[in-house]
Design brief:
This protein is α+β, with helices and mostly antiparallel strands and 127 residues long. Helices cover 39% and strands 11% of the residues. Strands 1-2-3-4 form a four-stranded antiparallel β-sheet. It is globular, with a radius of gyration of 19 Å. Bound molecules: zinc ion.
Length: 127
């Protein structure tokens, strides 16, 4: 079974000391190249420093084009079997969103496990 860590390039990393929506994401084609991705930009569509996003996708977003309009109007070249709602997201934004979801889910599981520990009958009592 494939896991998120099976990918052939390093996983996205959150930008230290920034908000949780900003990530460093490795290029799939240029070894050592990383792009800054802001998942909160453009109404949570996300923004990336890569050439694909800057030259093809950002100008559409800046004009107010929605993913559906871009998809139905075939305004962009669709790659990687993208879902229609991801039409205006590059692969780096999708990588960051995937890692964000994985990290968020793990944090929720840890929180639920911690809460479970303290709701058992052996819950410590204050003296
Ligand atoms: Zn990108």
């Amino acid at each position: 079974m494939s896991t998120p860590d099976d990918r052939p390039w390093p996983r996205p990393l959150p930008v230290p000391f920034e908000n949780v929506l900003r990530w460093w994401v490795h290029s799939h084609t240029i070894p050592g190249k990383v792009y800054l991705v802001d998942l909160g930009a453009f109404g949570t569509n996300g923004e990336c420093q890569c050439k694909n996003f800057a030259c093809e996708l950002a100008p559409l977003l800046a004009r107010g084009i929605t993913p559906r309009q871009a998809f139905e109007g075939e305004l962009v070249t669709l790659k990687e079997n993208k879902r229609p709602e991801d039409t205006l997201r590059c692969i780096h934004i999708l990588d960051a969103r995937s890692q964000f979801a994985d990290d968020f889910a793990r944090a929720l599981v840890r929180q639920q496990e911690h809460e479970h520990c303290w709701t058992d009958t052996d819950e410590p009592t204050n003296p």
